[in-house]
């Protein structure tokens, strides 16, 4: 039997325990096979097992594989060997300073362990060594912008223009920065005039957001509509929702559902003992010191890797109940509509997770308003909540839907709010704007996931 093929197929179907078994067989049968060694180490890591020794064997067979080295470093960090993980990444980056994924991995690791002050150090070193490499500079600028380090990003853009000259990518980065950082220039109605004929999905998201800030709803709509039936549509559906709501267009309830049509709560029937066991298991996974750069978490932490791939009994029990609840949700959707992001995808495919994670918010913590462009159906399951007597009866911790991102200044209020309740699962379309109100005291533990959009 081709155990490698079996293991990779099981992993693709998210049968991770089956993948671990099959890939273990593959390594035993062909111990010198580099792909089998890497795949086995990968699934050990993805399931939360000790994986460093397996990665070291894989690296010995394929020492020049950058993806392997990057994941090996992540495994080291996960098993408490943070300094060694950083050292390995720095050593490889010293030899290959244009390894962009390596720079990003190191920056992400440093943010997670609380070393925010020098999280982009490797980028700066590489740029000093290769000052004429435009791709390196653009990746650095993107990292700084993602971290909302606006002043550093502006300085990097200015330095790049002086060193390598202007380019399409650099100009898009400059315009995006001006538009997103705030200040008088961000409201310049002519900001994007010079690039009016440029076509790029990322640039068009910036232009849509800029038009909305200026109150030019029709202009934002005309910029977003051409993407409605493209592969990039999920980037633009949330902004189409805002535009249609602001214009009183009937397509807003068509997209978002009439009232709370597509937002559902499900009691998973968890006992106090099960909630306590789940809480204990999840808290043990919250090892980061700060949220990752691209996440909506403010004042808390988020777990790494796919939560539902871990062979923790209570987590797997929750996974089974959640899949049943999602299947019921999908079965109860209205008739298919191929032009709709929630109703269009096929419903006869296995339900797979695009991601699954846990969030632990501290006092004052919240989720900023956001969407999930990589998902089809998104969620929140509350597990442990602050004492209501301490928080009062206000909106602290409430999950809110339909509120526009505050930085756009649209004044669109939430269309629905849900008070958190331990053991209650909330399901909603991934294109729907959502966030949470800050908790005023205590801690809020939850888990969430995105269901992957099925494909033909």
TrEMBL record:
Keyword Transcription: no
GO terms for biological process, alphabetical: proteolysis
Keywords: Hydrolase, Protease
Keyword Phosphoprotein (UniProt): no
InterPro entries, sorted: CHP02466, TPR-like_helical_dom_sf
Gene3D superfamilies per the UniProt record, alphabetical: q2cbj1_9rhob like domain, Tetratricopeptide repeat domain
SUPFAM superfamilies: TPR-like
Source superkingdom: Bacteria
GO molecular function, one term: peptidase activity
Name used for this protein in its record: Beta-barrel assembly-enhancing protease
Species assigned in the record: Candidatus Phycosocius bacilliformis
Lineage: Bacteria, Pseudomonadati, Pseudomonadota, Alphaproteobacteria, Caulobacterales
